[in-house]
């Protein structure tokens, strides 16, 4: 069954919700267009293999549950050997970046067609992926600038789209440090998609960001600004982003001396500029979200010629922040509201680690890590589309838990209920229930057990 745009997704069978949404967005056609096909005479297509890998991620179980004898997975998903999955994931010729790009662009196109849209932005941020052992490809010793300590593993640099109400992953890169513990597999063909992504692991993060932004421009992705935090806020990087064709809204480091700006013919550090505004102007009190702060803005020029609008925010206990925008026509509130959308990527990282087990792949092969990360990002994009299309007031975490029923054994819950009911009847008999009372309780439990699936779907609609 392929859904039309007018159909309500929640009116169909909840046990096939995720699969039908993939059909609706044409996931199979996208996979074939990106070169996803399975060699050999097997009965499973590449699209079906991806769908079954998604099943293992959503039920938060490793891939081996797809062929083990377990009641946690629908029997229809356990029809192939493990070699089919691992050979597929290790295939360095598959264009995972192209598949993610097509899914993300389609979901963004559908979301932007919805009413009441705010100014969309692109968000850049990185997250550490911790590894143990010494066999993982590209594993190195890196410094976590958030926790201020060293760790072994690699970094993932993510680029995503947000309108303030959701987050859609668009692209990502894996970053290895200079202090390598294990290098790349020399037997891999450098001409393949996997070879290309292995070479980009050695690039510095600003260069990786610029390449991802150039791919977005080539796809015609139009946003109001690119948003990032203090680590990426370097003058050369801001100029490079504006030369690509995007405006920038970012948080500047207050103690960094590379940010010396010219104002009225004089050169100032950001700290001296803040003191000057504090002495000469009255800060205006505004509220952004739940944060009450006082702000003042000024248009300045960096020493390299870049014109910026700086918004200084005075918080409690003499704490202050400064935000910059390359579009000097923006008002102060718009700049702060635009930067506030950056926190959507932090929610994505938290959700992915908690529910999608981001960075938990046990395979040392870099192709497997790229494939599994891409599949997780596609799942997150589809969940956001389901959430937005139906104006669902549930959080993504609750929605994710509800979708686990799609891949669970439908006979498992009544079996568990039957055992609970038998134990309850035994307890009621011990505490002195008479025969008619036990019969009434037994009939009630039997009705719930026989109609459990229908009652579960009805309760989901009533929430």
- Following the backbone from N to C, one meets helices and strands in this order, namely HHHHHEEEEHHEHEEEHEEEEHHHHHHH
Based on CA atoms alone, the radius of gyration comes out at 26 Å
**Overall number of strands:** 12
Mean pLDDT across residues:
78
Quickly count the helices.
16
Number of spatially distinct domains? 3
Low-pLDDT stretches are 1-15, 409-415, 457-463
Largest beta-sheet characterization: 12 strands, mixed
Overall SS class: alpha+beta
Report a brief summary of the structure.
With 463 residues, the protein is α+β, with helices and mostly antiparallel strands. It is built from 16 helices and twelve strands.
Description of the molecule:
With 463 residues, the chain is α+β, with helices and mostly antiparallel strands. The chain folds into three domains: 9-228 and 343-406, no CATH class; 230-340, no CATH class; 412-462, no CATH class. It has helices at residues 17-24, 27-33, 46-58, 82-89, 96-112, 193-200, 205-218, 235-244, 270-280, 332-340, 343-354, 366-389, 396-403, 412-430, 435-450, 452-462; strands at residues 121-130, 140-144, 149-162, 167-175, 225-228, 248-252, 260-263, 266-269, 284-288, 291-302, 307-314, 320-325. Strands 1, 2, 3, 4, 5, 6, 7, 8, 9, 10, 11 and 12 form a twelve-stranded mixed sheet that branches. The model is unreliable at 1-15, 409-415 and 457-463 (pLDDT under 50).
